[in-house]
Each structure stands twice: as structure tokens, then as C-alpha cells.
Write a structure and sequence with these properties.
This protein has 357 residues and is mostly helical. Helices cover 80% and strands 0% of the residues. The protein is built from 16 helices and no strands. The termini are far apart. This is Type II secretion system F family protein.
Length: 357
């Protein structure tokens, strides 16, 4: 019974509208504006007035909370539009009296996050267009080309291959029952969407063990975690609190487990290198650079260097994958056209040639 209730809640959660957080770019824009204004003679409330002029409606609530005596962190939390990382960095900024630095670091953090996200989108834009082109080509062949060719075979005694009969049968059926076929297709897509959502709930791409996708997701996760550690530690937050914050906001179960294990190991008194080695990450450079950072007191620089390395690695992998995808998709288009030529057009040409002889 409990299992059935749990499944029902999972099913309902798919359709439940989620609280919309600010995008990376919106958070970058917000904190960048605050960091620039914070360096001037304007106080915080006046700074928010300037941002309000750019149609940032949620800022009204922040301004009212601060005017009512609440801290900047409390005001941000009440909007429910920011991450735990933002709250932690702003809290440290308030405690140290350096909110301008906190805003600047958050602006840099979200700027890089937004740039990385855009790189991924741009890299897969052309392959996405090719996939749509393949789908459009198949639709054209099925609903227009094959029916027009089929009329040429009517009344003839041409012996057609079995595959040709199947193609024409599918085309005739889907053309005649176009509405029903469309509804069936949409229903199947919807069912697959539901099953995938139920199956992958609370999982990230690196948890689903798809070779290429998981590899990309792992590179992104390493870059994201290291960059977040850099932001938090450079803001004055200790390693345990930084790890705790990451555990709260990371969605991937596998990364959560590793972070929990790392947290426990450091709390027991182990060095950062020992704690990382216990995770069996198979990422020697992480252990190497953080060991140097811990021993020389340059942890911030080591974290930034590592995050830069993994962001570059992610960009390189995306570039390689798209270079492989493009010719592969063009090949699929060529194979589709060739398949139609062999099993639809060639029998017709052969029949005409035979009749001439």
C-alpha cells in the first residue's frame, strides 16, 4: 500500500508546477548589478530601487523585507528564487561587511555557469536541426512521395519486393488514418515521457549509465562542484559547511553519496587528499592539486585551476561529439534516401525498362 502511495506521489509530481528559480543569466544580471552599485555611495535599498527600474518585479519583495529590518540573506530566501550557495555567500558577505565582494563572486559564478550552458546548447543546435530534417524527410516520403509512386504501380503486374509492399502498406494506412495515427504517435511519446520521468526521478544524467551522455554529465559535475567549492571557500566558508551546502543542492544520487562520504572523512580528521582518495574517483589531478593547495595554503587557486580544467575538458568533449554526430546524421539521411530509391523507385524503373524491351 505504501509503495502504491509512493508511486502515486511520483506520478502526481510530474504534473505539479514547480517554483520557478531564476536562470543562471538572470542571477548573473542581478548580482552583477548589485556588485557594481554596492561600490558606489548608494545604500542597499537605493540599489534595489535602481534594479527595479529594469522590471525586476521580485526585487520589490526583497526591498520591502530589507526596509522591514530583515537581512539581505533572509530577503533573498523569502523569494525562493536563489540557491543555497547564494544564501551562504551573501550571509558571509553580511557578516564580514563585504557584500560588494560577495555580489561580485556570485556574478562571476553565474556568468560562467550561463556561458557553459550556452556552449552546450550551441554545440547541439546543428545536430538537432539535422534530426528534425530526418523526421521531416521521413514524413514527406511516407505521406507524399510513396503514395504518388504507389499510383504508378496500380494495375501493373510488377513483382515488388516484400519490403516495398510493407512500405506502401504503412504509407497507405497512416495516410488513410492520419488523425488516428497522429493521436497514437503522440500517446506513445507521452507514455514514454511518463515512464522516463518515473524511472529517472531524482536522478541526473550521470546516474543513467549512457556512455556518451554520462561522460559529459560527469565532466560537467566535476567542473560545477569544483567551481562551487571555489566560490564558497574563497568567500570564507569552511570545507565542511561548503560540502554540506553542495549536498543540499546537488540532485545526482551518486554525487550526493560521494560528497557525504567526503564530508564524513574530513570530519573524522582526515586530510582533504585522504578523503578524496577514499572516494575512488579515478581523477588523480583532483587529489594532486588539492593536496598541494592544502599543504601550501592555496586551496582557492587550486580549486579555480581544477574547475577551469574540467570546464575546458567539457567544451572539448562537446566539440568532439558534435563533430562525430554531424556526419553520422548526414549518413542516416543518405541511407534513408538510398533505401527509398532501392525499394520504391528502382522496381518502377525496372518495370518500365522491361516493358520497353
Amino acid at each position: 500500500m505504501k509503495k502504491e502511495r509512493h508511486q502515486l506521489k511520483k506520478f502526481q509530481s510530474i504534473f505539479k508546477p514547480k517554483e520557478k528559480k531564476l536562470s543562471f543569466y538572470e542571477q548573473y544580471e542581478f548580482f552583477d548589478s548589485l556588485s557594481k552599485i554596492a561600490r558606489t555611495s548608494f545604500n542597499l535599498v537605493d540599489s534595489l530601487d535602481l534594479i527595479l527600474q529594469n522590471d525586476k518585479k521580485f526585487v520589490t519583495g526583497i526591498k520591502n523585507d530589507i526596509s522591514g529590518g530583515k537581512s539581505m540573506c533572509e530577503a533573498l530566501q523569502n523569494t525562493n528564487k536563489f540557491s543555497q550557495t547564494s544564501y551562504a555567500v551573501v550571509t558571509v558577505g553580511e557578516e564580514t561587511g563585504r557584500l560588494d565582494i560577495a555580489f561580485e563572486r556570485l556574478a562571476d559564478y553565474f556568468k560562467i555557469a550561463d556561458e557553459t550552458k550556452n556552449k552546450v546548447k550551441k554545440a547541439f543546435a546543428y545536430p538537432s536541426v539535422l534530426i528534425l530534417a530526418i523526421f521531416a524527410l521521413i514524413c514527406y516520403i511516407n505521406f507524399s512521395f510513396i503514395p504518388s509512386v504507389a499510383t504508378m504501380y496500380q494495375g501493373s503486374d510488377v513483382q515488388l519486393p516484400a519490403i516495398t509492399h510493407i512500405l506502401m502498406g504503412v504509407s497507405a494506412f497512416t495516410t488513410k488514418y492520419f488523425l488516428q495515427a497522429t493521436v497514437l504517435f503522440i500517446t506513445l511519446v507521452f507514455i514514454i515521457f511518463l515512464l522516463v520521468n518515473l524511472r529517472l526521478e531524482n536522478k541526473n544524467l550521470q546516474d543513467i549509465n549512457l556512455p556518451i551522455i554520462s561522460d559529459l554529465a560527469n565532466s560537467y559535475s566535476y567542473a560545477y562542484v569544483l567551481w562551487t567549492y571555489y566560490l564558497l571557500i574563497s568567500s570564507g566558508i569552511d570545507i565542511l559547511r561548503a560540502t554540506d551546502l553542495l549536498i543540499e543542492q546537488i540532485k545526482s544520487k551518486s554525487i550526493k553519496l560521494k560528497l557525504n562520504k567526503f564530508y564524513g572523512s574530513v570530519k573524522e580528521g582526515n586530510s582533504i587528499k585522504e578523503a578524496i582518495d577514499n572516494l575512488d574517483l579515478k581523477q588523480n589531478k583532483i587529489s594532486y592539486f588539492l593536496d598541494i593547495g592544502e599543504k601550501t595554503g592555496t586551496m582557492e587557486e587550486s580549486l579555480k585551476m581544477l574547475s577551469d580544467i574540467y570546464f575546458k575538458e567539457l567544451t572539448d568533449k562537446i566539440s568532439k561529439i558534435t563533430k562525430l554526430l554531424e556526419p553520422a546524421l548526414v549518413f542516416i539521411i543518405a541511407v534513408t534516401i538510398g533505401f527509398v530509391v532501392i525499394f520504391v523507385i528502382l522496381p518502377l524503373i525496372s518495370a518500365n525498362f522491361s516493358s520497353i524491351q
